[in-house]
Each structure stands twice: as C-alpha cells, then as structure tokens.
Specification:
The chain has 409 residues and is of the alpha+beta class. The chain is 48% helix and 10% strand. Helix 11 packs across helix 13. The longest helix is centred in the N-terminal third of the chain and has 21 residues.
C-alpha cells in the first residue's frame, strides 16, 4: 500500500472512531503512533458529555512519534470538541399535588423510623398540611420553585388576607422571621429527602434564599417580677401545681417541652436532681434547689401518682386529667402575668429559662456548667447570657468601686 493510500485509510479510521465516541457522549483526543502496526491512543480522558467532532486538515496540527519530524510519516490529529447538547433533558424539580401528598407521608414515616421526636414529626406534618392547603386554595397544579416562593411570601403576608392566615380568623398577626426560617428549613429537608428517594432530580428549594433572622433581645424577669408570679400562682385554682411549675422553670431553666414530658420517676428528691429527656432524645441530669424540691414534694403529697405518671397534669377544661401541654403552660404564664401586673417583658416559660441562665451567672456560675444544665449543643447562646451578666457586673462595679470609694474618702 503506497503512502498516500495508507494515510487516507488511517484518516478515515480516526474519523470513524471520533464519530462513534461522539455519538456515545464521550470526549477524546487520539492520534496514530508511527509503528508497523497502526494503533490509536487517547491523549485526554473521556468525560461522558455531548459534543461534536472537528478534524484538523493537513494544514493544521499533526503528531508524530518520532523525534525527527522530517523522516516520520505524519498523521492528522482528530479532536472532539465539547458543547452542551440542545436536546439534553432538563432536570425535574416539580411534584404534582398527589405526589406531594404521597412523598409527604413517606417522609413522615422515615422520620419516625429515624427516631425523630414526636414534636418534630408533628411540626413537619403540620407544615406539609399547610403547604397542601395553600396549593389547593391558590389552585396550583404542581409544587415547584415558583409555587414555593409564593408560599414563603404568603407566610409573611397571609395574615392580611380575608379570613386570616391558613383560613383561620384568629391568625391576623404576621409570622416572625424565625418561624418563616423554621418552615423553610423543614421544606429544604423534605425536598432533599424526595430527591434522594429519586422522586425529583433537583430540589425546588435550591433557588429560594434563606430567611435573614435578626438576633432577639434577651429580656429576663426581674427578681421582683418572679416573686409577683409566685404570689399570683398561689391564687389560682391549682396553687400547688402552678407554684411548682414557676419555681421549677426558674430554678432549673429547662425547656417547656421538657417540663411537660417529665414523669414522677424522673424526680430524685434524695439527690435533688431531675432526669431530663431533651432535644434529639438526649438525656441530661439537672440539679434543683431546696425550695423547688419542697414545692414539688408538696404538690405530689396531695395526690396519688404512680412512678410512670406524668409529673404535671391538666386540671381544667376538656383535657382535665391529661398531661399538661406546651400551650397549657404558655396560657398559664399569660394568666399569671396579667394577675401579677408584669409589664415590659414577655411573660412566658422561655423568659423563665432566660432568667435562670442570667441569674445563675450573676451568682457566680460558670458558662460550661450552664451549657450542660441548659442542654445547649454549642456555647453561642450561653456566651450571650454571659455577656449580659458581664455588663451587669461592669455597671455594678461603677457604682460600688472600692478604689473610687477609697479615693473619695
């Protein structure tokens, strides 16, 4: 075979290889070596992408395996250039309403199997229910990024609509940025789960920006306000229980959900400590003072309770005899605050938690022990309490400075 015919044969072989790899969605550079047996070898890895082929002619690039380019036959270099195919299918991110409901039920079951707390599962069920209500009410056929953006906007402005937010006439106040961020966080988790379950190719929440949350001011009760709350608790229909609730929250700083989940067996009167089941099903032990222990003992001595009974029970309304709920404790503090004339601070069980933390530090407690008692994962919130306590110490020093008193005589 003469040289010209041999070159033409190799030329057509390279083009066939390049075209074949291109149709398979590959990217390859290859050339021919200068040996007796014709071979091709890749010069660049294949990337499994769509592309087209461009071949250099004799006036362009050539490659030779010989160091002497004049003596070695030259063969054309064939290159596959990449470009995105116009026919590449778009990634799916939407769900129909029936798919949304079906995946929602599967997600809740998955959360239960992963031992998420009942409160977390209930919150997620409520969020999915409200999302479905919104899509149906606004007559959307699918749930995608645009629909979710409208949903996020509705959470911010829905209280202005006739009938209130979620169709509830009592929902006439705007949602806080923190609540909106909580909803968004659960939806991000949900659609990530749907993606992992191969229900969609990408999450519709990816293009929805996170909600900016300002730092809340920490406003604790004053000592006089705590005393007023305790006096108001003694005037209720359940004075022993209500006084014990106020003292326990002020003395231990536990969360309201932790208080509602307490059983009688969780209280150790001999060691004066309480076993708490906190966030993420994490257990911790919290100490309590003498006054708190006496108040709990006084409450329990008037009642017949088994060890597996809840510590605090509802004593009025339809839920009488059932465990006290979070809403029940919040309503209790609201009534006590009105009766005690508390003003200038939100009267809630979480304010009692703030009060415990700051008073603990003011009395000389350290931040690391406080972190353990409160059940904080990190020190960020504990440091905020420490900053308030430090500023109080600085203000106190300005009025009680020994040096100033000595110099003034």
């Amino acid at each position: 075979m003469d040289s010209a015919l041999h070159d033409a044969y190799l030329h057509s072989l390279y083009c066939s290889l390049a075209l074949s790899l291109t149709l398979q969605g590959n990217r390859t550079w290859f050339c021919c070596t200068n040996t007796d047996e014709t071979k091709t070898r890749p010069l660049l890895r294949r990337d499994h992408l769509y592309g087209d082929m461009k071949m250099f002619n004799d006036n362009a690039s050539f490659i030779s395996s010989s160091s002497d380019s004049n003596s070695a036959p030259r063969y054309p270099l064939v290159r596959v250039n990449l470009r995105k195919s116009a026919n590449k299918p778009e990634l799916r991110s939407s769900l129909t309403l029936s798919e949304l409901h079906s995946f929602g039920q599967g997600w809740l079951i998955s959360c239960d199997l992963a031992y998420h707390s009942p409160r977390t599962i209930a919150s997620r069920r409520d969020i999915l229910k409200k999302l479905e209500w919104f899509l149906i009410t606004k007559r959307y056929d699918v749930c995608d990024t645009d629909e979710l953006k409208h949903f996020m906007s509705y959470m911010k402005h829905g209280h202005d609509e006739v009938g209130g937010r979620w169709g509830n006439p009592r929902m006439t106040k705007p949602m806080s940025a923190r609540s909106v961020a909580t909803y968004r966080g659960h939806l991000v988790t949900f659609f990530r789960w749907v993606k992992n379950d191969e229900g969609i190719d990408k999450s519709p929440m990816d293009r929805i920006a996170a909600t900016k949350i300002g730092r809340d001011d920490i406003c604790p009760f004053t000592i006089d306000q705590v005393r007023a709350l305790l006096q108001a608790a003694k005037r209720t229909r359940s004075p022993k229980r209500d006084e014990a609730i106020v003292l326990l929250l002020i003395d231990t700083g536990i969360r309201v959900s932790e208080l509602c989940g307490l059983m009688k067996r969780d209280v150790d009167f001999h060691e004066r400590k309480i076993n708490i089941l906190g966030k993420g099903n994490k257990h911790r032990t919290v100490p309590m003072g003498v006054a708190c222990a006496k108040s709990l003992w006084s409450m329990l001595s008037k009642e017949q309770r088994d060890e597996d009974d809840y510590l605090f029970m509802a004593e009025r309304g339809r839920s009488s005899g059932d465990p006290l709920t979070r809403n029940g404790v919040y309503q209790l503090f609201e009534r006590l605050g009105k009766d005690a004339g508390i003003k200038g601070v939100r009267c809630s069980p979480h304010t009692a938690r703030h009060t415990f933390a700051i008073e603990y530090l003011r009395a000389g407690g350290d931040t690391f022990t406080l972190q353990l008692i409160l059940g904080h994962v990190c020190l960020s919130m504990t440091r905020r309490y420490a900053m308030i306590a430090d500023s109080d110490a600085a203000a106190k020093h300005r009025t009680c400075s020994p040096g100033d008193r000595i110099v003034r005589g």
